[in-house]
Amino acid sequence: MPSPASMNWPQILLRQALIIAGITLFMGLLLTVQTPDPLGRNWDRTQRQWLYCFLITVGCSLMIQLLARASTALINLRRTRRGQDTLPWPGWPLSLVCLVLGTLLGYSLAVELGNSLTGEKVLGPLRSDLRSTLGMLGMSLLPGLALTIYFVGRGQVEAARNQALNAERLAAENQLRLLESQLEPHMLFNTLANLRVLIGMDAARAQSMLDHLIAFLRATLNASRSGSHPLREEFARLRDYLALMQVRMGSRLQPQLDLPAELTELPVPPLLLQPLVENAIKHGLEPAIAGGLLRISARQENGQLILEVLDHGVGLSVANPATEAESTRFGLHQVRARLATQFGPAAGLSLLKLDAPAHGTLAHIHLPLTSLTRPDPDTAP
């Protein structure tokens, strides 16, 4: 029967060799015990019996698997043409047909090969009477039937597990799309609210801010529709957003971006840092009369990608870790939910309220480097 897809070829070959050795040993010992004085004058006969047992086991195994794989391939070819999912095995009725035919053909070919090697004239199933043929098939079908039941059951369990994993993966992807679709309008509404305030204060700066907004949305559109993009693209979008915010805040906003060259191509979820930057400006720097520094940085540390957003503003309401876990701010909730959905407990977001002399807030994201794979060049933005 077809082997599970999760196994590699060395494992498959080793498993087949062990199965053949086990069946040969069992059948050989059975025939040897039935032979009078097997270690005496009948030793040559015992050796021939072991040879025939080995050849029959190999022949039946090869023919059964060949017929089963060919049947599965033909069935899947028809299902593929109809747009249906493929099957890991041909189903019980066809599997039993493959078992009987494979045993009959494999047994006959093995006997003929054994006769050519030993000079004997042992009759195979196709050359014997019906009673002898049924006896040969009955003895040979028992181990084949037992192995078929085992591997079919194992294949069904594996197929069910793969279906569950696929369903879980699709659910996670849908959850990410939902989170991202919620995040983009939220950012846009906040920016438009800022633009509305600026229109009444300075029409020229509002016009400049609107131009930056159009450029930012155009550059962000493709990135937000992909599952990930390089970290350099994330920082590029942040530069666009900060340019947009500087139209309103002027010199009160002092941005610094630090991205090491060796980390530029690491893929990250799009718009991952933007909610943190938006919160740092809205809740940290804008309420501060003098504004302050906004530093966005990335580094590699202990097998993790560390992303930080630091502002020297008035700080967020995170007086202790308990309140941090209960944060209801939309952007922070979205970031935490996206990290949990895509990376599980290996990734996370934490907030730290800075004390004197540098007041402000530090948002800290950690991602496992082992979960970050290079983006496909054909799909990367």
Compact overview of the structure:
It contains nine helices and seven strands. The radius of gyration is 35 Å and the shape is rod-shaped. It is an alpha+beta fold.
Written account of the structure:
The chain is an alpha+beta fold and about 375 residues long. Helices cover about 60% and strands about 10% of the residues. It has 9 helices and 7 strands; from the N terminus they run αααααβαββαββααββ. It has helices at about 10-35, 45-80, 90-120, 130-200, 205-225, 230-250, 275-285, 320-325, 330-345; strands at about 230, 255-260, 265-270, 290-300, 305-310, 350-355, 360-370. It has a 5-stranded mixed beta sheet with strand order 2-4-5-7-6, with helices on one face. It has a two-stranded antiparallel sheet with strand order 1-3. Helix 1 packs antiparallel against helix 2, helix 2 (about 45-80) packs antiparallel against helix 3 (about 90-120) and helix 3 crosses helix 4 (about 130-200). The two termini are about 45 Å apart.
